[in-house]
Amino acid sequence: MSAEIKSEVRTFLDASLSGGASAIQDDTKLISSRLLDSILALRLVTHLEAKFNIEFAAHEVTADNLESINRISEFVSSKMK
Amino acid sequence: MSVENQSHLNRIALVDSQGKSMTFGALKTSREMFASILFRFQVGGGCRVAILLEKSLASAIAIYTCVDISAAYIPVDVHLPKSRIDDTLADCNPHVVVHNQPGLFPDNESHACRIPGLEETFITVLLAPNYREVESKQAMPNFFTEYVSYVLYTSGSTGIPKGVVVPFDATKAFVMWASKSFDIVETDQIASIAPFHFDLSVLDLFVARYKKATLHLFSPEQVRNPRLMSEELSKRKISTIYATPTFYGALLEFGKIENQDWSYLRSVLFAGEVFPVKQLHGLMSIWNNVKFYNLYGPTETNVCTFTEIHRDNDRTEPYAIGKVCAGHEIEITEQGELLVGGLHVAKNYLNRSELTAEKFFTVGNTRWFRTGDKVEVDGTGHLLYKGRLDRMVKRRGYRIEPGEIESALHKLDGVTGAVVVEHRESHSVLLAAVVTTDGSRNFDIVQLKSELFQVLPDYMLPDSVITVNEFPKTSSGKIDYLKVQQDVVSSLHK
Lengths: 81, 494
Hints:
heterodimer, A: mainly alpha, globular, B: alpha/beta, five-stranded mixed β-sheet, 27 strands
């Protein structure tokens, strides 16, 4: 499952960062480095919710849960259980 | 002097992001005690006080106290890169810096003190008259000769931010005007969305205080999370909000606001950038019992035109920025530039006499400012915003001089030339960095952002980078910015 989530996030990042996502590793910091601005981060949340049929509670839309591809994958997986 | 009505002292003045509150009585005590601490360090009327604190009860108290003692407050964003904080402090050369990071200025005399009423908060007051030898020190008076309420820093085209000096009389006139125009009363619950270094906060802070309404402070982390904000604004029974269209747009798109109770909300004020009509109408459909106001004015004039928005379903063009505020006059030049004179207009740029002379002028006793914004008058006498005369970009309500980003790009290894242009993607303003290089390295956006984030605030970071061999030129040999922009759009949509 985690591979599928990661690949989904990558596809999103590739489309959002004008093809720049190839330089992003699974542990690259996305939020604290400002690679993703707040609007892009929210689009990603909405996208993941629709794709994996989950819902982020208000307090879960945090920099911590979205900080890297690894973190996103862990969080989304935990929501799907 | 009439005896001040004391009835408000038991009511709530401030509520912080976590819900911790403070009454007007406690706030008064805190202000008086903090004023006495500042006096102990010879800080009084005409002094400059830099405030390097997170948005909090403590920073609000520090700001209110500065105004109480006629010192100028200079809010500095703690989230800025260190080099930019240093540059700002060197430019404004404050008498003290109020901060909460012990050891931040190891070479200066530092004193720990407590702002009363905030038991867990320790504030260090730092004596900083020799913070750095400023080249223009001789030219700059040690004290402001007339009372200045604040200095706000905004993007500068030469690569260095510039401080807008706003006199006390301008702030006072603005607060009186806003309190009356938006009918603020003591039962109002006002949301403070903007950070204190952003001029929208002036209305929040001082209108709430003047009308003895309750001010709710929201942290940047909360403001970035529309779902949370939607819940909080509703739960706290907020009645008045003043924010950027970017904030409201995110609330509409991601906040699930249709799930909340908005029966307490009565006024929605926006400023700082153009509100896309579709989004505005979307918001009006959900907040259908609320008055919407468009406010316009750069930091140098604060709000100088405004209008209540009356919904017109056929409208596709942005709504008017309104009519001139009472106490103001306008002129529109042949090029369409809006000039504004009147009570809310600032005095000058700190330490920038040439730029001040270029942008500000006085007619009789009235201060005037050349906005650089192009406007037209519509059939009903309302002003329509028509863009900029220069290259300035508005993004998330922030002013960005592309020259400032270009200047940062020029300092990167391998860059031989740089042009930054804006382009739009649905409702978002995006920045593209177009660079020429010496061929020694490749630029990808991930690497570029991480390098620029060392020196620039996050809202100035480009969204894409394109390497070119040379920039298109106009017939007179200057860079053709319009052509660069067209090339960017076609290259990104290939």
